[in-house]
Dienelactone hydrolase (Xanthomonas arboricola pv. pruni str. MAFF 311562), 152 residues
Amino acid sequence: MGHWTTLDTPDGQVAAWHATPTSSPRGGLVVIQEIFGVNEHIRAVADDYAARGYEVLAPAFFDLEEKDVQLPYDQESLQRGLALANAVGLERAVEVVKSAATLLGRAGKVGTVGYCWGGSVALLSAIRLGLPSVSYYGGRNTQLLDETPKRR
């Protein structure tokens, strides 16, 4: 079971759900939220990865614009989440991922997994930061077709 912590980023502090394994971590994982925030579902996803041996941070990206956003899965929340995702933007989101990955570096190799909007953030993190990443149904991935991947 994880707990809330604070993550320092270039744009200020954001909350992050921090879940740790019961033994030495296999590596670190940044779980990147959907447009509904770090809600109960995303916290459960982070806890599940921790149960599988990973140290996990799930940053609350929307804290850059509005603190403590956890939205239900409904149409009104979808619109609010889209507005917040647009306000945060992919550029700032990648900086949050970079901060989380740096903190998790002590756990060993670090990767990302993102869902929906977070899937596009994960893809951009792979391209710009060279992090191993999985993008689940990244809705903005086609906007990244002209990006040149960072060489390791």
